[in-house]
Amino acid sequence: MARIPEGWFLMGSDAGQDNERPVHRVWVDAFDLAAFQVTNADYSPFLAATAHRQPLHWHDPLFNAPAQPVVAVSWFDAVSYCEWLSAQTARRYRLPTEAEWERAARGGAEGLAHPWGDAPPEKSLPDYAQRWRTGPEPVGLYPPSTFGLFNFGDNVHEWCADWFAADYYSVSPDRNPPGPTGGVRRSSRGGSWRHHIKASRCAARSSIPPEFQYADYGFRLARDPAT
């Protein structure tokens, strides 16, 4: 886990989609975020201990290498894993909020399009043209972000805790926004191995219904700091 420091940041973008507006100032408390996306190796003990259903591609050789991120997990599956791990460790693991995810993506910098700056991913990420041909890559092959996070914004979409609402930024509180109180879609962040552009902007938002299981959807753990 990497410690993401507390602080204010500008959330959203005037240059992106309508649902990224208005740009607004947000405070996020310090929290811990997993350095890596949850892998098949991480997820396997959960399946063995709970008899929880296997992801759709669990036996597909394109997706089941131990170091690849686990994919085709629904939002409910991801939450169940967090609850199981919390019970095993006596620490509260959970999904990050959208605000926490964007705070981590920005790495303490303001106004940049991507975690590394404003240059497009095809000109910034090493070996971009050779990666992600048939599925997500094993996590941690390339250097981490400023906050020590690997594959942050690429590889797979990452489920967030929030419900999604396109107009939420117009009513969002400025401290630790939790997302809307209800909805039909759950928020997600980050890029995808199967998209034309593989790495997302810091402010880019996405969402799907929480029961969906897509081969480019995984998750990353958040945790409250120890008291």
Report the major sheet.
Answer: 4 strands, antiparallel
The dominant shape is: globular
Strand percentage lies at 15-25%
Count up the helices: 4
Rg (C-alpha, Å): 16 Å
Poorly predicted residue ranges:
none
Order of helices and strands: EEEEHHEHHEEEEE
Overall pLDDT, averaged? 96
What structural class results from the helix and strand content? alpha+beta
Gap between N and C termini: 16 Å
Write out the strand line-up for the largest beta sheet, numbering strands in chain order: 1-4-10-5
In words, what does this structure look like?
The structure is a single chain. This protein is an alpha+beta fold and 227 residues long. The chain has four helices and ten strands. The protein has helices at 40-50, 75-89, 98-106, 121-124; strands spanning 2-4, 7-11, 24-28, 31-33, 93-94, 157-163, 186-189, 206-208, 217-218, 222-223. Strands 1-4-10-5 form a four-stranded antiparallel beta sheet. It has a four-stranded mixed beta sheet with strand order 8-7-6-9, covered by helices on one side. The longest helix has 15 residues, at 75-89. The chain is globular and about 45 Å long. The two termini are 16 Å apart.
Question: Could you give a quick summary of the protein structure above?
Answer:
The protein has helices at 40-50, 75-89, 98-106, 121-124, and strands at residues 2-4, 7-11, 24-28, 31-33, 93-94, 157-163, 186-189, 206-208, 217-218, 222-223. The chain has 227 residues and is α+β, with helices and mostly antiparallel strands.
